Amino acid sequence: MKILLVEPSYKNKYPPLGLMKLSTYHKLKGDFVQFIKGCDSKLKQEQWDRIYISTLFTFYWSVTLKTILYYINSVNSPRDIYVGGVMATLLGNEIEKETGATVIRGLLKKPGILDTDNKYIIDELIPDYQILNDINYDYPLKDS
Q1: pTM of whole model > 0.70?
Q2: What is the rounded end-to-end Cα distance, in angstroms, of the chain?
Q3: CA 28 to chain centre
Q4: 9-47 pLDDT, tens per residue?
Q5: 46: domain CATH number?
Q6: How far apart are CA 115 and CA 86, in angstroms?
Q7: Within a domain: 143
Q8: Domain count for the chain
Q9: What secondary structure letter does DSSP report for 33?
Q10: In a domain, 36, yes or no
Q11: What domain range is 92 assigned to?
């Protein structure tokens, strides 16, 4: 599979641990993984099997929604965009209504949540810090 991990372009101190664990998961499965912060016109033009978009706080609604809609045509179906994190857990129904994306509420703490043949507990995987080298954003606490 061809996987795109996206963190919206809000400013934050900590790297996206959820996306870093998803990177580990997909690499264990042998998938190609690309990470980006924000909206990238080159990556938008490519076709992806699955796109994951992280969310932080509810006050980042606008930038997060803009990011989801930006990549909506980069997958076969809006359901191939997976949105998770704090805001997705709290406002999941609203995100689904506005975008048609798949919302992941809470942690990926048991096998089979994303893929029925998944034997991994994604939340327990070691984060893939290598993906932080792919972007031009410096997290003040990147070694946290």
Answers
A1: yes
A2: 29
A3: 17
A4: 998 888 999 999 999 999 999 999 999 999 999 999 999
A5: 3.40.50
A6: 22
A7: no
A8: 1
A9: E
A10: yes
A11: 2-134
